[in-house]
Design a protein that fits this description.
With 83 residues, this protein is mainly α. It has a domain of 57 residues: F1FO ATP Synthase, CATH 1.20.20.10. 88% of the residues lie in helices and 0% in strands. It contains three helices and no strands. Helix 2 runs antiparallel to helix 3. The chain is elongated, with a radius of gyration of 19 Å.
Length: 83
């Protein structure tokens, strides 16, 4: 509540503040998601070394999907800043 009052007093719109917070959350969430994928893939490879290729392929595809969603979220936040 106090943050919103200070933001309005400084001339920063609430939409711009929300867009900046949303962009930060999207970047952090994508980093956490890709980190968890990497960790799980390493554990899976340690348990079943013979299926390394399949695990690596699936890991790369899922990481690309997460990065795509994060990029779309960042673009929406940037559009909210300038529109």
């Amino acid at each position: 509540m106090l943050g919103l009052i200070l933001a309005q007093a400084a001339g920063v719109g609430v939409a711009k503040l929300g867009a900046c917070i949303g962009a930060g959350i999207a970047a952090i969430a994508a980093g956490i998601g890709i980190g968890r994928i990497g960790g799980s893939a390493m554990e899976s490879i340690a348990r079943q070394p013979e299926s390394t290729g399949d695990i690596r392929t699936n890991m790369i595809v899922i990481a690309a999907l997460i990065e795509g969603v994060a990029l779309i979220a960042l673009i929406v936040c940037i559009l909210a800043l300038f529109v």
